[in-house]
Design brief:
It is built from 8 helices and 14 strands. The chain is globular. It has 2 domains: about 150 residues, 2-Layer Sandwich (Fructose-1,6-Bisphosphatase, Chain A, domain 1), CATH 3.30.540.10; about 110 residues, D-Maltodextrin-Binding Protein, domain 2 (3-Layer(aba) Sandwich). The two termini are about 35 Å apart. Strands 3-4-5-6-7-8-9 form a 7-stranded mixed β-sheet, sandwiched between helices. It is of the alpha+beta class and about 290 residues long. The structure holds D-MYO-inositol-4-phosphate and magnesium ion. Magnesium ion (MG) binds next to strand 4 and helix 7. The site of D-MYO-inositol-4-phosphate has 14 residues, from strand 4 and helix 4. It catalyses: a myo-inositol phosphate + H2O = myo-inositol + phosphate; D-glucose 6-phosphate + H2O = D-glucose + phosphate; adenosine 2'-phosphate + H2O = adenosine + phosphate; alpha-D-glucose 1-phosphate + H2O = D-glucose + phosphate. It is found in: Cytoplasm.
Length: about 290
């Protein structure tokens, strides 16, 4: 199929261009403005949003609407202002303008612009631009995963005792949730594994799995916009995706395990506390149209 007859490739090329432009906006703010006094909160006192998150999302959605007027959107900040969070079979752009907003506010240099594209509820391609590092992660279903054009491959490690694991503390400070986070962490650390890390961005942790820097990433409480784009980057790099229950990944379930292989995934999942956050497609401000 030639490029001009491949509308999904046109859409992906557009996503790469707009993610790069978004990254330039983010870098400009990080270099020249202090965001710490301009922060607002969403679901909890530590779930942050800034004007830049909103500006970047508007930039992406407006540019896509003008080129692909029939496509639908799920965007973190649009859902936050009451837009529906329903994945239909229509072509849908799934956008997190800044994955790692807390990092952005603190100038901790890991923030990702995430753009995923789903058709028939399957992610066809994903773009994650690590704006401060200037790393463009891309993958299209069936066509491999890349960082700045170089192919990505997950780690070949199968011994959990030689593995590096990534996770996050999230933004839910309910004491019962915090207990479960620490219980899982305690068990994983005590296996033992070589180490536990966290980039502060679900998408960049998943890209770390894709490039072989960590064997596995897990988290409960993520949203569809944090993981959709990076999901295809992980699988195209040879990795596997699971729910923390061990079942198949459900993009709306708010639970994810991304691993280099089944052996590591199964071994770590056995140590994880399973608990639920309200599904993305069931939240009160996410009712169907
Ligand atoms: O809200 P943004 O888009 O910055 O993303 C979230 C991260 O992706 C999570 O892994 C992480 O645990 C946090 O919940 C973080 O908020
Ligand atoms: Mg996010």
């Amino acid at each position: 199929m030639s490029k001009s007859h491949d509308p999904w490739q046109d859409a992906m090329d557009h996503a790469v261009a707009v993610a790069r432009k978004s990254g330039e906006m983010i870098r400009e703010v990080v270099q020249n403005q202090d965001q710490s006094s301009l922060v607002q909160t969403k679901s909890s006192a530590v779930d942050l949003v800034t004007e830049t998150d909103q500006k970047v999302e508007r930039l992406i959605i407006q540019s896509v609407k003008s080129k692909f007027p029939s496509h639908r959107f799920i965007g973190e900040e649009s859902v936050s202002s009451g837009e529906p969070c329903i994945l239909t079979s229509d072509p849908t752009w799934i956008i997190d303008p800044i994955d790692g907003t807390t990092n952005f506010v603190h100038r901790y240099p890991f923030v990702g612009v995430c753009i995923g594209f789903a058709v028939n509820q399957q992610v066809e391609w994903g773009v994650v631009y690590s704006a401060i590092e200037d790393k463009m992660f891309t993958a299209r279903r069936g066509r491999g995963a890349f960082c700045n054009g170089r192919p990505l491959q997950v780690s070949t490690q199968t011994d959990v005792h030689r593995s590096m694991v990534a996770t996050e503390f999230g933004s839910d400070r309910d004491p019962q949730v915090v207990d479960k986070i620490f219980s899982s962490l305690h068990k994983v650390l005590s296996l033992p594994v070589h180490g536990v890390r966290g980039a502060g961005s679900a998408a960049l942790n998943m890209c770390a799995v894709a490039r072989g820097s960590v064997e596995l990433y897990y988290e409960t409480g993520v949203h569809v916009w944090d993981i959709a784009a990076a999901s295809v980057i992980v699988t195209e790099a040879g990795g596997v995706l699971r729910d923390t229950t061990g079942g198949a990944l459900d993009l709306m379930s708010r639970r994810i395990v991304a691993a280099n292989n089944e052996t590591i995934a199964t071994r770590i999942i056995a140590e994880l506390e399973v608990y639920s956050s309200e599904r993305d497609d069931r939240a009160p401000d996410c009712e169907p149209e």
